[in-house]
Amino acid sequence: xxxxxxxxxxxxxxxxxxxxxxxxxxxxxxxxxxxxxxxxxxxxxxxxxxxxxxxxxxxxxxxxxxxxxxxxxxxxxxxxxxxxxxxxxxxxxxxxxxxxxxxxxxxxxxxxxxxxxxxxxxxxxxxxxxxxxxxxxxxxxxxxxxxxxxxxxxx
Amino acid sequence: xxxxxxxxxxxxxxxxxxxxxxxxxxxxxxxxxxxxxxxxxxxxxxxxxxxxxxxxxxxxxxxxxxxxxxxxxxxxxxxxxxxxxxxxxxxxxxxxxxxxxxxxxxxxxxxxxxxxxxxxxxxxxxxxxxxxxxxxxxxxxxxxxxxxxxxxxxxxxxxxxxxxxxxxxxxxxxxxxxxxxxxxxxxxxxxxxxxxxxxxxxxxxxxxxxxxxxxxxxxxxxxxxxxxxxxxxxxxxxxxxxxxxxxxxxxxxxxxxxxxxxxxxxxxxxxxxxxxxxxxxxxxxxxxxxxxxxxxxxxxxxxxxxxxxxxxxxxxxxxxxxxxxxxxxxxxxxxxxxxxxxxxxxxxxxxxxxxxxxxxxxxxxxxxxxxxxxxxxxxxxxxxxxxxxxxxxxxxxxxxxxxxxxxxxxxxxxxxxxxxxxxxxxxxxxxxxxxxxxxxxxxxxxxxxxxxxxxxxxxxxxxxxxxxxxxxxxxxxxxxxxxxxxxxxxxxxxxxxxxxxxxxxxxxxxxxxxxxxxxxxxxxxxxxxxxxxxxxxxxxxxxxxxxxxxxxxxxxxxxxxxxxxxxxxxxxxxxxxxxxxxxxxxxxxxxxxxxxxxxxxxxxxxxxxxxxxxxxxxxxxxxxxxxxxxxxxxxxxxxxxxxxxxxxxxxxxxxxxxxxxxxxxxxxxxxxxxxxxxxxxxxxxxxx
Lengths: 155, 688
Known about the structure:
With about 160 residues, chain A is mainly α.
């Protein structure tokens, strides 16, 4: 049963990886992506690609500039730096990976991983300190009953 | 009326102050065994009655403001700034919470309203309710101080009174705005009640976990209100703002999501305290944090500390909220330090592979998600302090950081219910996980085979993972239902659906919870559909058409119109699928007369598969033709359906279980004997 389960899992996993590898290399739509990585500066507080202000004075200019930059073969980083120079750091919808801005990206996953690590340590500690006096282990009869419940009610 | 309103607010402050002081003195006398001229019991009773009176006084103030709004009394500055004569009646009602002062009045009214119910139901536990009532009175005093001295809603206009008001923000003139803010505030304010009970229980060293039973319904109802409020806001943004989305990670949106996340964590972890006497300190701080996050969110968004599209709510009252937040934290910390020995766990976690540990990890992930939102909201301020310039932390940041956390949470939604309390054996894990695991993998393969390309971009990858995990979680939840239903069917001979209904009624909390999980999966699937959004913008002359997805939009006409409230321009579009006309849409742009502010009115044709979302993007000044933007948003309806399922699941979880007597009549033998028979143990509903 367990070997068959393992083998089936392996086959399914390999199928997924094969499908992923086969299609690698598709190109995304840079314009759409980049316009959703910057903010419109008209004061609407919305992404450039999502600004819905009727008669927005900035959106058409900024989108045209972005279109030209992509057509001229500039990289995303270059485009973002140029926009940052022109409109200030608030034009970027997320902090770039520079100097102090790294902190913005590093802290949340760091907190999550530290949380998981601390939890694991605490649980291990609890496990070794578990006081059987106040919480007796299952009796053989209880274990058998538990197993019977599982066996008789499984699909 | 303004004078009556001001007096009512002052009276409410005095009554709340009395409830706080008299309640505190009575509780101190009871705890210390002291007694004054009046017995502590009688003093506490007067405090309770004053608390009830404060609700009536605030209600009076609310009625006074509503009357001023309906009577077009523009001598009241608040009415002048948030209403006008041509404003339709429902929005005159909604004007009550459309500005700073009115929304604070709504907050105070809901708070005293919750207090009113709590004080009327004091016989549930007189002493604990007295503690909770006194703590609530403290919160009431803060909001009434604000209303009386910092943001009075009945301030009068200086000089000549204008003939008409400045009108209501056009963005707020939408039916959902009549219910979204009250719903959200019911959630925000509602967390004051479990907070007050938790703090009160800690102060009085309440024996046992009965306070959790008392507050369980309060917490769940509050959570449901907050959930509905958040999604009503999302639906409003989707229907009114006209950018094709529903969530922009704006600080005000973030402020509502943070207490929802910690509240959700509390609802899960409190079960461990109820069942196993564990995580008492954790739970106390979770509910304290949830309440404090409600206050912090209000502070952040009303102080102007962070910029938000909800700019109408900014003011100078941030300092008051900061001071209150510090005071609340100090009280919580002081109480915790004094009484922390009371929060000692009765049991320890025995295994990493157990229901308890899945709750622990679920809490960890929810808190990480909450921290990430708080961090992203505050980082612009931190950056300005450290680097000297403000950066934007917008959707790309949250998409990259928050989505993986959300997916981890989705995974735990499926795993948790399959694990047993205390410890799960490897054999049972294999047996319970084999089907959901296989369904997850097969879904991923099928999706890739039909054209979902996870390597295309991050959005496609996340959507594939979401669909696959979602299928696995639904399988896990479904198998839990079926397992119990088959047992009931074998005993009663009922059909499967009736068996499922009976199973759910026997343990509403457990199976209602599963339905909530199912709803969350449906919401996740709806969100994942966003990876495949399409957009097309085109200028259309009469008779010209544009195409998006399977739809063809033909411009029938372009019209201008006017009424007392606004001028409008709209295009009439016929929508075809193939050669069949499906519907007519008329996206428009309005210019409101009183405020001179424009508003885009979105037109949406919604199906289970996708939304055809059309906006009028202005007209080309050179040609005079309308410019139409159309979005095809896949699976959008699933989000709103998911919310309905979550609401239904929560209501089921709130319902009492089918009585044991009734259950015994239908399924022999009696519960004691049932324990001998595994099938009947499951049929009886099992544990949570």
